[in-house]
Amino acid sequence: MPTMKLSKTFSVNCSESGPQTNCFGYTAFDTTQKVVVMSFRGTDGNVQLVDEMLSFFTGKKPFFDDAGHIFTYFYDAFFFLWNGGLSQEIRTLKYQYPGYELWVNGHSLGGAIASIAASYVVHSGLYDASKVKLVTMGQPRTGDYEYAMWHDRTFPYSFRIVHHRDIVPHIPPQYGVDELFHHRTEIWYDNNMTSTDPFHICAEADGLYCSNRQLETSSPDHVTYFDMNMPVWGSAGCRKL
């Protein structure tokens, strides 16, 4: 986006115990489109991936009284970033640019953090839900059914993009010790996800529709979105194509 400008970056240790792992996000603003941005990076390496998977057994944490529970690792990751300077930065940008929309996005782990971040700023009264647009890619299940229902009631603009057989939107498991549930609305690309490929708009949040119909899953489909290898593209500086 030619008129979007980076504001600040945030890099924090987001492991409450065990080896140190990193969570990363940034803020940006666009005075032409009148937008403030929060964006979050996905899982950083195998150590963090293992840490996330092991934490599947640690349960959920309450979000707000009327907004269900959040998977522990994602909850902690957001608050490490929020308390690591992101809170003050978003408040400053909102003061500097009153009336601007807030766009929130992320890939993989970053998608889960983005979901929580958007929900938090709305529930805490910092932004009105009508001013927030949330778009995630390859987002894992983030909270329980109550969280998903609160999210659906609250946000008029919220989309989870899923590439073909991407494995991550199917974890943690929907049923088990901790029942987790996706919020709406899924945008499913059942193809290679090039710029001309069609997609399905899936109003059903987490039933046996759209990407949940897949009997096979794929790790390569998780790292490739819109025909771009996300980690490689990011490491190369997100160069304009």
UniProtKB/TrEMBL annotation:
Domain Fungal lipase-type, residue spans: 37-174
InterPro entries referenced in this protein's UniProt entry, alphabetically: AB_hydrolase_fold, Fungal_lipase-type
Species for this entry: Caenorhabditis japonica
Superkingdom, natural source: Eukaryota
Alphabetical GO biological process terms: lipid metabolic process
The protein's name: Lipase_3 domain-containing protein
